[in-house]
Amino acid sequence: MLAAAVLLLAGCSSGGGTPEAGRDRAPAGTASGTASPGRTAEPTPPAEGSVRVVRTVAEGLRTPWGLAPLPEGGLLVSSRDDGTITRVDEKTGKKTVLGTVPGVSAAGEGGLLGIALSPDYASDRLVYAYLTTESDNRIVRMLYDPRKPAGGQLGAPSTVFRGIPKGMIHNGGRIAFGPDRMLYAGTGESGDRTPAQDRDGLGGKILRMTPDGEPAPGNPFGDSPVYTYGHRNVQGLAWDDRQRLFASEFGQDTWDELNAVKPGDNYGWPRAEGKTSGTTYHDPIAQWHTDAASPSGIAYAEGSLWMAGLRGQRLWRIPLKGTEVSAPPQAFLKGEYGRLRTVVAAGGTRLWLVTSNTDGRGKPAGNDDRILEVEVS
Questions:
Q1: Residue 24: CB partners within 8 Å, gap ≥ 6?
Q2: Which pLDDT band, with edges at 50, 70 and 90, does 11 fall under?
Q3: Nearest to 359, CA basis, from 331, 333, 339, 337
Q4: What are phi and psi of 248, to 5 degrees?
């Protein structure tokens, strides 16, 4: 049975109003229910799944926000308020502070937020970070050199992209490299509704750019980094096993959203929150009342999207077939670990799950905040 607080919206309208220039182009990351030529039909995941917390990987973290698994082993974790990046040994839980990122101005929901590894990390050792400064939100990159002493392993940040509006709330902050090797960023409208519908602005958007911060080839609005617009506060980005992009988004008072991302589409905010009765806006594939979700990170594993809930204090499983939800979402870990900020695929049936109880809105236990290893099906 679907919980009363959740309304599932299976299917979505492509919406978006009149077609825009370049809209017929479909770069990697396009959400589409059509299987690629020569690929087998998509299986439908089981209607019900399971979650088991295998172990606590690390504890005693302060305002953790972003997490990036290293290919050589270890997990990089950003601290929103301290502006530091820490390496966690996923086997022993040992924490090593790599360094402090200069220029971080932490206040409200802003600070050092999402982190991601360069698609060429094996050769360039670059770590990307989304951060709030005194003037804006921006994306920087830094060289990580583990041969240097702890505390000094991060090189000076180089700004990749700047000018994203900042505020005490709604700073977005999730960054990720897609299967097309382009850099995607979820931004917020910084508490001001106006920027979300302004295609020339950067707030309330999903942005797509090259690793150097230039508008990515094939973007829907010509020489612009804007990929989609009409968002309130995007903090979750994930691709399924067929390279389709999905995003989670905070609602205001009524509906939080999970969206299938189609380049160039308008997702409605502030003119619409949740599903609408028309075709002007791209409807979410699922929506929740805000006390059941307030979603941040998402990850894909075992045929489902897994969505971390902050206010909802639970991990949602959303089974997919194509870009539609194939069965009612399930909630797990409700209230067991408090606020959940970030979830990252760990390979196979495993996820890394980061709590967020020291962010000023939670009730931290003595060992918060934590990274958990979770097994899902």
A1: none
A2: very low
A3: 339
A4: -100, 150
130-168: burial string, b at 16+ Cβ within 10 Å, e else:
bbbbeebbbbbbbbbeeeeeeeebbbebeebbeebbbbe
Q: Are strands 112-117 and 95-100 parallel, antiparallel or unpaired?
A: unpaired
Task: Region of 137 please: left (phi>0), alpha (psi -120 to 50) or beta.
Answer: beta
Residue 9: pLDDT above 50?
A: no
d(CA 92, CA 57): 7
> Which domains does the chain carry?
43-376 (2.120.10.30)
Structure-token match 């791209």, residue found: 282
Q: Per residue in 70-109, pLDDT tens?
A: 999 999 999 999 999 999 999 999 999 999 999 999 999 9
Tokens standing for 208? Answer: 């797509």
Q: What is the average pLDDT value for the chain, to the nearest integer?
A: 91
pLDDT band at 41 (very low <50, low <70, confident <90, very high): confident
Three-class SS state of 79? strand
What span, in angstroms and rounded, lies between the C-alpha atoms of 168 and 147? 37
Q: By the 8 A CB rule, do 351 and 377 touch?
A: no
Beta bridge partners of 75: 69, 88
Residues 6+ apart with CB under 8 A from 13: 279, 281, 282, 283
Local confidence band at 233 (pLDDT 50, 70, 90 cut-offs): very high
